[in-house]
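The following record pairs a protein chain with its ligand, MU-OXO-diiron.
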Amino acid sequence: MSDHNQSNDNNQAQFTQMIERQMSRRKFLATSGALGLGSFLSLNPISSAIANSFESVLLNFENIPASTSDTITLPKGYKSDVLMSWGDPVLAGAPEFAQDGRQDSMAQAGQFGDNTDGMSLFELSAGHAVLAVNNEYTNYEYLFDHGGKKMTADDVKKAQAAHGVTIVELRKTNGAWNVDPQGKFNRRITANTPMLLTGPAAGHEQLKTTADSSGTKVLGTFNNCANGETPWGTYLTCEENFHGYFGSNEKLELDERYARYGVKAVSVEDSRYKWHQFDERFDLAKNPNEPHRHGWVVEIDPKDPSATPLKRTALGRFKHENAALTLDDSGHAVVYLGDDERGEHLYKFVSKGKFIEGDDANNRQLLEFGTLYVARFSMQKDELKGSGEWLELTHGKNGLTVENGFADQAEVMIFARQAATIVGATTMDRPEWVAIHPDNKHVFCTLTNNKNRGNKENQPVGGPNPRADNHYGQIIRWQPKAGDHTSREFNWDVYVLAGNPTVHPNTLYAGSNNITSDNMFNSPDGIGFDKSGRLWIQTDGKYSNQGDFAGMGNNQMLCGDPNTGEIRRFLTGPIACEITGLCFSSDQTTMFVGVQHPGEGGAPSHFPDGGNSKPRSSVMIITREDGGVIGA
Ligand code: FEO
Ligand code: CA
Ligand code: CA
């Protein structure tokens, strides 16, 4: 904890120096010619920085061991408390959580939703804040006493109410943040909340249904994975695996426009959520356009419970992970967007208008008009660095024409995946979260894993996806040309290749040189920077602790120093969970961390309540016993 009082400015200067050193090191490496497999890892520029033994100034806690226990473990001097768990009442009149799984849809609609994911904290004043949290999906084995085997119409409504977003006021009393169940901003947004489709696809034929001839009025959001936030104070929630909620009892021929998104006419028996059994909105025979109304980024005002959430079609339709928003030097809003599926793509939106401090009417239009791009990376064999370009997804350009199946710009947005293929985007190893370093010049993205890499023709090994059968994942990063996020050019390299140096020594599957048997992990997913530039890394990986994953234990959170490449394990989660979702209080003394699906698939977890209790997805509060800055 030696640099507890060190200023952010010092860290920033240090970071800039390190990046400069790495850049000159890279220049040196670039002259060393073609690389063989043996030199591949040692020539990772990040690893080279470590080899130079730069001392870490950012990380001042001890790396903790992997764990298979049903608890949260943290470094010495840290503690965790539950902020709220699935089923806790958040609206006036809602009942307390019941263990027996027999509460109805009304109860769930007033309680914290299930499977906490991305979240953002909006501070109102000292000790008073609004927290917006995604509720991605739900596990029927815990939601219902019948485990989902005897669904009723109300059960479908209950499952729909367990999804969406929860907004709660928090108050800090006696040094601890707590949910204010009376908070006037408290709100549940579910799969049935009215919202509007806005932007270039709004009102298009492909978005009209029997219930909505306008093609603009849609009910609900679901499978809300990660998030983003805007400088004008709104929350962005990202719709990911929306395909799994649709089905049909009739045999249907669905074309490529459905298949590319995984939308299938499954029967009730084969359906995971069985919504179409009782809600015909999800029956593809009756509402073939309903899936086109999902898969968007939704903008929500967390401080106005009456505000209608807005689906922003200008940001494209795919399986959105998060929405990392920044402003370029001239004020354009730039949003980086991952599409989490094997062999899908990485996107960037650039607003037409510019942010004007305090001009809410202007700023709230910024995600309405703009240009969407998709990334193409250079693919040099055995190179963990290179260049790249952003390819424009605009109707009439780059082959996005009527002849190629796109009637207009709306169809380019609705079928953004197909558009990305036509323009020649790079297929990626499942882009999950994107995070922008506080220097606003470096962008990081987790590529969580991809068993198809090297096994499918459209997913060759190389560039930012350097390993076949990639079951460990990697984090890449890029610098926009001249530090300008609106630029079409960038340079990239690899921050870390996850791996297992014990099981696979001296191979690519050992991971890069900043991975050791003491900090190894698989499947990086959630990432975020704190103000000092620490990179927090959350995992959603295999927790068998066997075979390829031996020694990695439960899912976890690590912390990386982008200056040195060093990574230390900071937190381990309970049995069969995923760690996902993070945000900080502005003074960085409190960190909010999500524990999703402990005990999934019936695994023996009783987190967080213990005893024989049902496991419950929970938002945790991490603090230091001495009240200091997290990680410092
Ligand atoms: Fe919801 Fe890609 O994680
Ligand atoms: Ca995720
Ligand atoms: Ca994941």
